[in-house]
């Protein structure tokens, strides 16, 4: 077998495959912020598995823990039976993450993917309130199964459902088409007006920074306003922190700077630490009214993921990582500001915060061109937004200065090449 | 930390947890058909992770392949980028499983869980046909996200949705309330009668043996009849082989003995070999009309699972395993027949086939009592059916004769104890 | 203006028009069982406005009452304000119809059409039970608005909705594909089995004789069985007596011979007596939990219809009409039996009961040919069934012997002509 | 029988009755703008059957036409068969209404109520476009059957559905929470943004003046903007003119001043002239793609209503009525402005236009108090708005100056009494 080309995927894998079209190489080895393909080409990773690899690839400490666990024949798959690995994770997560942040949540393992935690959160909010409607927000992305897709904004993804998507209403996200106050007023008026046609919702579901939707970062004021609307009306607040959580914005939970206290939190992607499938649904104890087994799933007990996840929590025992992410975030911001000034052809504006920043290009197709050129320069990076109008920097949050520098240099080279090429074409 | 008790789970994990209530022990080590808890107690596993551990726990060959892959820093998480591990799996799956069975499918990785593959199958069938309705069958179980739950029969699980479940119609499964011919006629009449109120469906979705629904095994005649109904009317046939597939019934796919050729096949659970999350959706090439990225998910590229899955396929290079499963299945059948005769108090009748057999007890609560007593005897086993009326034998398909014997002996001890206890109570 | 042709309708009316295509004449005058078109051609009416003209056209007594009411400037339109005409109707309906039959219902005026009463009944049943699912039956017809259409069987009508129709499940009507006991068992099993996928319903809705669905008449045994299923499980029983009620089957309510006591009864069509729009929803007092105005509509207070309806109730003060209908029904049955024997080419079988009988022809298109020929012979008659396979006799229940004779003669002439013509074609 | 009290309604009619609670009298006679109860008390009608009696009660010319038609035994009920009365109506409607306004519509008779025409319009728009979503607007009211209720804003009415209402999205009506431009931009952004979560709609449905929703009158600019949004995106524009049409705002169609050309127009209420049930759906010929009978109903052929409706059209042969309505509308406006100045305690602001004006009172319960006092003064008048915050003047458009004066005087007396009473209570 020769795996140096993509023909095997073209022949045997479904047409639904997508990233392998944008990054046409067969990858084999990976470490921290680097990947190598079968021809030995090296790539810098500013993609991080769409946020599932916040600690980079194959983190050495987690790797050793995993190998030891496998070697000892620790139980691998345990459904939702009790296991030592799970107990250790629950205890560490409570001690290292929840308690120091004054958060009191019961932890549910809803199945190992982001869409599973969202589906479980929606079910529970509907059960708690006895209402069916859920408010989601423009450009929100919450998953691909029917429940989660119903609260997702993207038209192309929605179309794929094959059935009308119901039981949800979209409201404008912060700064969607007005300032923060206007957006909050809009929501309030629709909820409070008995003639608005918007049924009283069970919950609001939102991301504090919308990863897929174009790196839209909500202001603290908006998040606080939304929480207040919920509190005053008995509506549950669900924060989907699947992509923005686990340190990507500079704090463990993305909502910490806003000082809000969600009723339900959805976590997945990087919570597993090593890229292994794991998801959590955090629930305020008073809302944990599930009957046993009312939601379940086969892969709730992915013990290798518990082992890696527990090892990953070591990073949060002090504030070293947080501080590092916050400092490097400024570097990224500065770099992107420089880019928009130096290359006005981008017609660029900065989006996002922390380690989920990028540039929205007001030129059709340009962000995609930048991502394509970046790949040619050995940088892996994707676009976001309903029209793929944003190129998106998602380095591992553990990346060192040299690695970040290297990636940013490659990105500038890609931007330069894109702008030049465009120039040749249009002139 | 002391993990010898369950208090940590009671304090920190959601009320939704279920198996840990039926099997109150904290498990740590596992190998093949055995598990050990933290106190060193040994258990025989007749549960197999609800069908996710058909090859038992921590299979040594797969383990070595996994450790080697981890050690070499093979890429762990790759979304749907091309990777060497994925290429090897695709090629092996095609060469070892599909080609020898004259099956021509494109493989889709829909996200790593059973409910993901079901959701993707329903979406695709609706896209292909332009219809919204899907026919499912009584006591079918297909998953817990809204799309999959809509085609699931269990009232308790459905109730958990919190919204009405729509876009689906339930028809009687084989032998539900009549003989095979009657059940097929029923389906035909509802589909063909323009006054029946049943809209022309995009697809039928069914399990050949219903695992959760009570070990109902469809006859070949019924499966062929269902396929014929689909073919004649342009309806897609989706076989959900998540639980019954990967050798559990004695052949790789559960539908092989019936000689049918489904349009879409859902696989998960044991396809990953080692209990790691993995799912496949197999699609006839002519129906593989997905647009790139129309369905996606973060954990589609679980490379350790590809590595273990590829290693697991070695079992299927010749018919040794198949023959062994088929022979041992007879032993199980014989044993269960003996039990119903020896213990008429069970009011038992045999259910299922292959390594998914059990006894339906026509006495309320009795099957649950047997499972409970079995746990006391060191045997892990669950119940099935809408009223938990069936106790269910799900040993690993790789179990050796001694292991099977051991488990069956423990089971008989449990049955005896249950019957006796009941006797004392009722007399 | 010349109205002797249909061009004005072709030019100005929507393509949705239908009966004017089957009965291509411009009608002007009508009296009792006769109509005349603009050219003075006389027609016998075996159609009765699809059951809205049980007392024939322009009944003289009702006409005088109407003219008097108009002349006196009695209030015409009163929404749901109290009016003398409405009070008189309520009192008469209670005294003449309900009390003598030991029925205790509150009367609701839900808007003047059949689909309005059905929608109100479904809303109320859902409110009373807190459940969303409603069980309807194969070949049931309940109306064309989305709520009523969701419980209607006809595929063509359903397709017209333009959205998937949900919140309902179809079950087999009596003798649909088995004997009465088998059909009842089927329903019971689906309702009682917690794994069937059929959610516990708020209500059953059914017609005792299905008018549009092909003149299927339920047996008393089936109706009693259905009522029992409802009673034992707290499910509401809604009888849609819009077409079969008001004497058409020989008793005022079609369900009287079965001795059942529905929770909600839907009446429209002939309840207005003179063909004026009126509908009632009869509700057991204990279920009359509507909030004021929770269901409303502009034409609930159609006072001319109250006036005619009250006059029509005079027919029910003794059993003269009932006896007459029952006797003439036998004549119709005898005639139809004769027809099937005399014209075996019809491959006919008798359907329905009372003044809603007909012949199902097991030859494609034949029933429609008979209706077409009948029109040529001056007899107005329509077909029923999902494939229009039944020709349907719907004379006014007040028709005299001569009129009935006349109509039957014309029908036989039409049958003879149809059979002959077919003969010529096929030989 | 003594009908001087309401006990008969309390005993025999459903709790759902509402207007008879606000207007506790048993009405018997009515003429033009006056009603009399059984005790002979006279009332001025500023309610007009919620817009169904634009020509007042028992208009003498229509009455004579009706009596003549009845006397001649003209056909009363004809389903959708061709009749002389219907032909005459179609021709007159085309000649007198459509042609002079350069409107080219096919006329559909969808069943005789407002909710029927709305349901038919929604079905057709979905059929034409192949889309399921429909955009409705805040505080819109379109009917009480499930399809129409799904596009209705009122929370209390929606709740009554008993099922979640889907397949629709509410957008802000003109001036809902911003100026006209802001509201149009909002709609545009949600429709055009592929990430908004609002699926491309089949149609917009709206009232130009919202009767039930609180007498909100859209500006011409907004209506034109909405039409432009529809045209540019292939969305159908449905104007629900059931309440605002047939002269109530001063022109036959309410949308004439805006110069827009809707794709579908819904008419009912006053189109029947005399308060008899009748509804029309007007369809641009290119969208009249109904299959025969795809939507139907029993009372589509209400010939007495055709007769009265044709007689009513005489009013539109010249512009006398239009001019009179427009002049009297100014009087009403002036009167209401006076009231808000003279009685600042009302905290009143003017709403609506033409003969559908009123005052919104920013004091809880005050508008209802005014309506109650008005009744005591012999004036029949209702409230509107989600909180019943508007008292609403709906005189017949044919009212003479003396009648209008009389009504306004009674209204002022009611306002004065309300304000005084409130004063006593609060001081």
Topology (elements, then pairings):
Four copies of one chain form a homotetramer.
Chain A: H1 7-12, H2 19-22, E1 26-31, E2 34-37, E3 42-45, H3 48-51, H4 60-71, E4 82-83, H5 84-98, E5 106-108, H6 114-129, E6 134-137, H7 146-149, H8 155-159, E7 168-171, H9 180-192, E8 203-206, E9 209-210, E10 216-217, H10 220-233, E11 236-240, E12 264-267, E13 280-283, H11 303-313, H12 320-342, E14 348-353, E15 356-361, H13 366-376, E16 379-380, E17 382-384, E18 390-393, H14 401-426
Parallel strand pairs in A: 3-16, 6-7, 6-8, 8-11, 11-12
Antiparallel strand pairs in A: 1-2, 2-3, 5-13, 9-10, 12-13, 14-15, 15-18, 17-18
Helix pairs in contact in A: 4-11, 5-11, 9-10, 12-14, 13-14
For the structure shown, list the relevant keywords.
homotetramer, 427 residues, alpha/beta, Aspartate Aminotransferase, domain 2, 2 domains, 7-stranded mixed sheet, 14 helices
């Amino acid at each position: 077998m020769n795996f140096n080309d993509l023909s095997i995927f073209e022949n045997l894998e479904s047409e639904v495959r997508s990233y392998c079209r944008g990054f046409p190489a067969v990858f084999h080895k990976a470490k921290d912020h680097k990947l190598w393909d079968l021809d030995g080409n090296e790539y810098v990773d500013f993609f991080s598995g769409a946020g599932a690899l916040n600690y980079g690839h194959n983190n050495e400490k987690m790797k050793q823990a995993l190998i030891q666990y496998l070697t000892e024949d620790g139980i691998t798959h345990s459904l939702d039976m009790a296991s030592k690995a799970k107990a250790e994770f629950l205890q560490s997560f409570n001690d290292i993450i929840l308690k120091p942040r004054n958060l009191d949540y019961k932890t549910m393992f809803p199945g190992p993917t982001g869409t599973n935690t969202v589906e479980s959160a929606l079910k529970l909010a509907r059960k708690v309130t006895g209402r069916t409607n859920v408010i989601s927000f423009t450009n929100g992305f919450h998953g691909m199964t029917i429940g989660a897709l119903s609260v997702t904004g993207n038209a192309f993804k929605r179309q794929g459902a094959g059935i009308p998507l119901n039981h949800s209403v979209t409201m404008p996200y912060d700064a969607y088409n007005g300032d923060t106050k206007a957006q909050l007023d809009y929501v309030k008026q629709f909820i409070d007006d008995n003639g608005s046609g918007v049924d009283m919702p069970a919950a609001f579901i939102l991301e504090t920074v919308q990863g897929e939707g174009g790196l839209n970062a909500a202001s603290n004021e908006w998040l606080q306003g939304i929480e207040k609307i919920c509190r005053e009306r008995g509506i549950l607040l669900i924060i989907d922190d699947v992509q923005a959580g686990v340190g990507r914005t500079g704090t463990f939970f993305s909502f910490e700077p806003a000082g809000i206290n969600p009723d339900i939190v959805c976590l997945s992607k990087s919570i597993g630490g090593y890229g292994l499938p794991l998801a959590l649904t955090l629930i305020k104890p008073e809302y944990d009214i599930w009957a046993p087994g009312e939601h379940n799933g086969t892969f709730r007990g992915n013990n290798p993921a518990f082992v890696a996840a527990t090892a990953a929590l070591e990073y949060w025992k002090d504030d070293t990582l947080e501080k590092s992410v916050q400092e490097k975030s400024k570097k990224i911001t500065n770099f992107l500001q420089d880019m928009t000034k130096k290359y006005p052809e981008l017609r660029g504006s900065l989006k996002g915060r922390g380690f989920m920043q990028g540039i929205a290009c007001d030129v059709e197709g340009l962000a995609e061109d930048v991502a394509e050129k970046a790949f040619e320069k050995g940088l892996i990076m994707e676009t976001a937004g309903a029209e793929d109008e944003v190129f998106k920097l998602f380095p591992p949050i553990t990346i060192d200065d040299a690695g970040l520098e290297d990636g940013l240099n490659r990105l500038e080279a890609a931007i330069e090449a894109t702008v030049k090429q465009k120039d040749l074409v249009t002139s």
